Amino acid sequence: MENTKAFDIYKDFEKRKAMTKEEMLSKLNEWAKSGKYEKDMLVANWKPQKTACEVITNYYNPDRDEIRIIDVASGTGLVGMELLKLGFRNVDALDPSEEMMKVAKERKIYQNHFTEYFDGTRLACIETDTYDAAFVVGGFSVGYMPTNALFELIRIAKIGGLLILSVWEGFDEMIDEYRDRFFPLTQKMEKNGELTLLREDVIPKPDKEPNGLRLVYRVHVSESSFSHLKALQNCNEF
Ligand SMILES: C[S@@+](CC[C@H](N)C(=O)[O-])C[C@H]1O[C@@H](n2cnc3c(N)ncnc32)[C@H](O)[C@@H]1O
Fold first, then answer.
1. Which protein residue's CA is at the shortest distance from atom 27 of ligand 1?
2. Where is each Methyltransferase type domain found (predicted)?
3. The pTM is what?
4. How far apart are CA 84 and CA 196, in angstroms?
5. Is domain 9-219 in CATH 3.40.50.150, yes or no?
């Protein structure tokens, strides 16, 4: 019988952990080019893009055209499509995979397309305090965006802007790069008045994989005053 399951995430995590940056990029390009990425998303039977996007209407309702948004780790544009359905048109995309970006560009849903890694390194192409909201759906995962990416999310969001993050519940326990790093850093930033966690919702999933977790933060500073974390050894940090 055909296996209709998208993938076994634990096996996928193991494979990804062993990859170099180049191998990862080539896997991402192939995932998009073959059309398998979107098939996997459909079979996965949950819609993190939809649940992530819906929450923004609690904060920005009128003048949706005016709101400047960036979709970080934008993939083929599924988040952009959901935002468009909700009437948000002023959305930029960022992703390091040319093939993912090619599909997203064909959809004509984003204003600007940045083919870049988002890893905490300061991006010259994006000014400080630019966006009312930054989305990351599926970008905080094995071998993708490191914890240090939080620094750049804060920098490019406006003061008062939102960070809307969709991750696996328990991602910080499952993945070395985030264990004892991600939430200790956000909590330090919260204590220092740089961020506020506005809401944290578990998104139940119908299969055995972990549930989703949606986090919404408000940003209160142009840049964090903390130092970047040291890169982990043997970790595919970019
Ligand atoms: C699971 S996909 C999610 C795509 C999209 N957000 C969605 O929900 O359909 C993860 C995406 O993260 C991107 N990615 C991986 N490493 C990244 C990095 N360092 N910076 C930005 N994006 C990255 C991949 O190219 C891929 O498109």
1. 75
2. 71-165
3. 0.94
4. 27
5. yes
